[in-house]
Design goal:
alpha/beta, Aminopeptidase, 2 domains, seven-stranded mixed beta sheet, four-stranded mixed beta sheet, 11 strands
Length: 252
Amino acid sequence: MKKTKEFKSIEGIQMLTRLGTRQGVVAERARDYICDVFDRHGVSVLIEKFEVDIPTAQKARLVINGKKELCIGCGMISGDVPVTNIASSLMSSRFLIDTPVIYVNPKCALPSPTNFSFAPAIAISPKTAKKLLTAKNAQASLQVTKQKTSANFLLVGNRIDPKVIIFSHYDSLGPGAIDNASGTVVAIATALRCLKEGILDEALFVFDGNEEISYDYPTYWGHGYRVFEERYQKLLEGAQKVIVVDCVGNGK
């Protein structure tokens, strides 16, 4: 009898991050990878489908002193972006949810689209932000389209009366090692450990393929979790604990 290959968390993170931004078709590849891991261990996965609207940036543009600079779209609406509206993406997006803005993450060397606005918005690097602050002239704009796409959440374990429900999401807005490949593989490894210990039937693991972005206003994140809540409200009410595994390793 062929021995099942042991699941290794580091390899799982590497596999998911190599996919790149996990939205749309790429999120489906991440879904298939998760299903394959459980299939190799003889664990059944229920795949549920739902529709969601997400923004697709067609063209993000920033020109400083006549030179194009690297930027990433992070707005829900097309239009010009005032180059004087610069804000840290470390603050909650709720403060600027309707504001055209240029986001900068001071802790990331590259443009980091961690916040979105229901307005034209782009993300730039700290280095580009310094150029912008001293620029003689600059222009910024975003072209974005609303795209309807299919997404999934995956259910592993007890779907009748779980004592514990564990959520994680496998979609991302970039390679997403921290957010949330790390949380996904921790949830996978925990589910497999529960299987080994004979207690998988006490828990339900929910792997969400649409947590990062949607047109839900003002809380554009967490759409897939809300779909689960609508469909499985009684499971949530009956569970003793609900745990969300996200951004594992982000912090000291």
